[in-house]
Amino acid sequence: MVKAIRVPEHGGPEVLKWEDVEVPDPKEGEIRLKQKAIGLNFLDVYMRQGLHNTSPPLPYTPGMEGAGVVTAVGPGVTSCKVGDVVAYASLQVGGYAQERILAADQAVPVPSSVDPVEAAALIFKGLTAHVLIHKGFKVERGHTILVHAAAGGVGYLVCQWASAIGATVIGTVSTKEKAEQAKEDGCEHVILYKDEDFVERVMEITSNKGVDAVYDSVGKDTFEGSLACLKFGGSMVHFGLASGEPEPIRVFQIALKSLNYTFSSIAHYTDVDRDAMRVAAEELFENVAKGVLRVRVNHKYPLSLASQAHAAIETRKTTGSVVLIPDDE
């Protein structure tokens, strides 16, 4: 028996329960993992609330990203062996546990140059950032982009990466503390959206030209303004709906400026092209080793206190990445 967090019913952070669970031997194509750290993703909150379209049947163990040591491999597994340190990002839940079973093709090797805790904090959000700036809208030197929630778990990585490429990054944040972090992470301009109209500021910064792309994980509260910030032919890239789903898009909203709209997801790698996922993970870890990406593990909680971590992320009291550390570590 090992310990894990279980969700017996949908609701607030208080529904998360610390319980004993059985972890079976790995089957064909599976591995057993002793976890070093588990990343916390806002999708975990959506699922706990029962709001996400992929919310698992109750009861379940949440968690979609982490890193650990392989302790057993099932038949047919050749991609890793016992003793390997691997990380994973997957919509296959089960991460909030001291040990877990995982499909082997969801795991990527963690190089010795990267701390497993950093790998757990980085893998899901980092691959999401990779999708956003390479697939959703390909960021190039000279582009100007707007990143909402620039101090958040994905936002800070997008800012660092896009800045390193040579783009001008404008970030929106809620507090002065988050503004300082956003500046450190490559934002040339930071907008405190509670104190300023972000559309007016963006148009002022860009001399009324607008931005090439908006990366928006907020949703309903920022949608109309985000469209207004785009230049002719600009791209709206959604990757989250923290404030809820916006009203349906009307054709004229994008036709007036010949805009592009997309919702980019890590599923592009995890569900569609896992070879591309492994290549993207290698690039991600290489950029960490080179110092291009600085992993901000700003909040660590014991796994047994996952409810406290959920409360913090749900009330937007966190910046950077949040990780859960198994209580036996």
TrEMBL record:
A single cellular component GO annotation: cytosol
Annotated PANTHER family: QUINONE OXIDOREDUCTASE PIG3-RELATED, QUINONE OXIDOREDUCTASE-RELATED
Gene3D superfamilies: Medium-chain alcohol dehydrogenases, catalytic domain, NAD(P)-binding Rossmann-like Domain
UniProt entry tagged with the keyword Repeat: no
One Pfam family in the UniProt entry: ADH_N
SMART domains assigned: PKS_ER
Signal peptide region: none
MF-aspect GO terms: mRNA 3'-UTR AU-rich region binding; NADPH binding; quinone reductase (NADPH) activity; zinc ion binding
Statement: the UniProt record of this protein carries the keyword Electron transport: no
InterPro entries xrefs: ADH-like_C, ADH-like_N, ER, GroES-like_sf, NAD(P)-bd_dom_sf, QOR-like, Quin_OxRdtase/zeta-crystal_CS
Keywords, ordered alphabetically: NADP, Oxidoreductase
Sequence ranges assigned to domain Enoyl reductase (ER) in this UniProt record: 11-324
CDD domains: QOR2 (cd05286)
UniProt name for this protein: Probable quinone oxidoreductase
